[in-house]
Amino acid sequence: FSLKMYKIFVNDKPIILTNLISKEDGFKFFLLNTVNLDIVIRKLNNNILNEVYLYHPDSSKLMSLFKQKIGCINAGGGLVVNDKNEILFIERNNKWDLPKGRQEKGENIEITSLREVEEETGVQNLSITNFLQETYHIFRNKGKYHLKVTYWYLMNTDYVGDLKPQAEEGITQAVWKTYEQANLAMSNSYSNVIILTKSYLSSI
User: With CB atoms 3.0 to 4.6 Å apart as the test, which of 2, 8, 124, 155 could cross-link to 136 if both were Cys?
Assistant: First the structure.
């Protein structure tokens, strides 16, 4: 038996897909097959629930069943490190974030990731070092909930020019942060970015 779990964030509250049933303690369990996702998401948004577990016994079907219940879009992003070992951050909605954006039709997800980092920050000469992980969150568009799956890549650059935050995407600044500053920034960031950044910082 191999335990499989996915964390999907509704704002900063998790929906956890799992193939293991455990005793409820401060969270709710639902069956993935029959759950009404709209109601669950609303309850998380309204602070009626703090976290939710959705159960299905077959670990290989957890994500595909979830995607069948909700529209899904793919995005790509980068955790970018320069020659001074600084990490590239953007500020959006008064929170620290990493550059990312939606995959365009027919576009390879690695190309999406490189393009979005360059568009959102002005950084050039980017190269992908390796794939980091996928993150998941729910967003609302035209009255409907969708799942956004973001594919994150570790990137390197020797770029030393000006940073150009993409104002039309609501980005107020783009900055390089030392590892120490990056760690401090995690007190004002998004759950998925915190998971990704802390995982990287603990691996170096």
Answer: 8
Quick check: 114 pLDDT over 80? yes
pLDDT, tens digit (0-9, with 9 covering 90-100), for 139-162: 998 889 999 999 999 999 999 999
pLDDT on residue 141: 86
Of 95, 82, 102, 85, nearest in space to 163 by CA: 82
Query: What does the alpha-carbon distance between residue 117 and residue 135 come to, in Å, rounded to a whole number?
Result: 17
Under the banding of pLDDT at 50, 70 and 90, the label for residue 121 is very high
> pLDDT band for position 1 (50/70/90)?
low
Beta strand pairing call for 144-157 and 71-82: parallel
* 39: amino acid identity, one letter: I
Over residues 51-76, the mean pLDDT reads 94
147 contacts 70 by C-beta, under 8 angstroms: yes
What are the angstrom distances between the C-alpha of 142 and each of 22, 133, 137, 190? 36, 28, 17, 23
CB 67 within 8 A of CB 37: no
Spatial contact of 100 and 77, defined as CB atoms under 8 Å apart = yes
What the block records as the tokens of 178 is: 């030392």
CB atoms within 10 A of CB 185: 20
